[in-house]
Every structure is written in C-alpha cells, then in structure tokens.
Amino acid sequence: MIKLVKIATVALCTLSAGSRVMAEETESTKIGVLECTIDGGFGLLLGSSKDAACSFTHADGSTEHYSGKLSKLGLDIGVSGESYMKWIVVTPIGNEVGSHALQGRYAGISAGASVGLGVGANALIGGSNEKIALQPVSVEGKTGLNLAVGLSTLNLAPAG
C-alpha cells in the first residue's frame, strides 16, 4: 500500500504542474478561493459520487455558498472519511464574473490515496460559461483506506 501512496503522490505533483502550465498559457486573473467539504463514503472499482458543501470567497471578500456533487470515474477503491479541498479560482482576463458564476459542471483529472491519513488533488475546468479553472491550492485531507485515479467531475449549484 505504501507503493500506492508513492504512485499517487507522483500523480498529484504531475497534476498540479499541468494545471499551472494550462493557466499560464492564457492570461488569467484570480477571482477568489473555493473551499469544499466532501462527504466520506465507499469507492467502487469504477468510481464514486459524493456530496459537497462549498463556499466561494470572492477577491473582494464577499462569500457565496454552493452545494455540489464530486464524481470520479476510473479506479476508486476503498473507503474514505470526510475530505476538504481548496482551489484558487481563475478566469481569462476580461471574462465577466457575476453572482453565482461558479455554478455548472467542472471536469478534470484527479489522483489520491490514503492509508490512515491521505492526500489527493483535482484540477478542474468548467463552470456556467466553461471559462473558469479550479487550481488545487491545498490537497485533500482525508482519512481511510483508499486509492483513486481518473476523471473527476464537480457539479455546483447555489446552496439553499
């Protein structure tokens, strides 16, 4: 299992570097930070789906709340506890960002592993206008016994 954690760590580093290169290819601006608490649960061989409660803090300090669902397609085996993700939210310069601009579907590659405590990351692109990127700032904090590598989607809707 320690080998699996090492493999996931290498995948996370590659994922993080790739998302930074993608964001640097077009001029973009940081519009805020998205933080999500993701429910724990069981990973099935081909994937999983977990509910998320998120808050988006705009660059001006105002906050919006979202509910969502994080789904993974690919290798996802084991059980994990509640996890926490934090992303920097960026968009191309000149893209108008209004109220609840983060609602919509995001997709990207994810990797993670845990043996007791674990790590994971998801670099995602999408939103209501397909021009918002979520770059991992801090990796998942989760507990359990789990290995996940594959495609992730995050669907966000305004909470309430």
Task: Summarize the SSE layout with pairings.
Layout: H1 2-25, E1 28-38, E2 41-43, E3 47-58, E4 63-80, E5 83-92, E6 104-126, E7 132-158
Give the N-to-C terminal Cα separation: 41 Å
- Across the major sheet, the strand order is 1-3-4-7-5
Q: Percent range for helical residues?
A: 10-25%
- Tell me the structural class: alpha+beta
Strand content: over 45%
Q: What is the total number of structural domains? A: 1
Please give the radius of gyration in angstroms: 15 Å
Shape: globular
Order of helices and strands: HEEEEEEE
In the predicted model, the low-confidence regions spanning at least 5 consecutive residues are 1-24
Number of strands: 7
Put the structure in a nutshell.
With 160 residues, the chain is α+β, with helices and mostly antiparallel strands. It is built from one helix and seven strands, in the order H-E-E-E-E-E-E-E.
